[in-house]
Write the structure tokens for this entry.
Amino acid sequence: MPAPSPPPAADDLCRALVDRVPQTLFGQERIEVRPETPYAAAWGDPPIALRCGVGRPPELRPDSELMVVNEIAWLPEPAERPDLFTAVGREAYVEMTVPHSYGAPGEGLVPISDLIAQEIPALPLGEL
């Protein structure tokens, strides 16, 4: 998976988030990420992937339809059948790829949303 390059302000936030991700997600064990990076984690096969410090999604607009999971706003892509979810409105963007074979993404987004809420401060109200 492509290794993210978070901006300096997000470096420590992303390291702290990835250090705390669960060992299992969707019943799948955490697996090695290549290239090795402190900003990403993965589970299972096909891999469920998390990348912290990614760029702002180009599809994110003021009128984008977001889904909220435990107070974290996620941009689902593609809109008709999403498998890529980007947490927005925080000081670092966090991307989750959840293959359709795992079913509804909520099982993975809930624990990751809780970690994001604890580790990555919110942007000022109204900023995405």
About this structure: The chain is about 20% helix and 30% strand. The CA atoms of residues 77 and 119 lie 24 Å apart. The two ends are 25 Å apart (CA to CA).
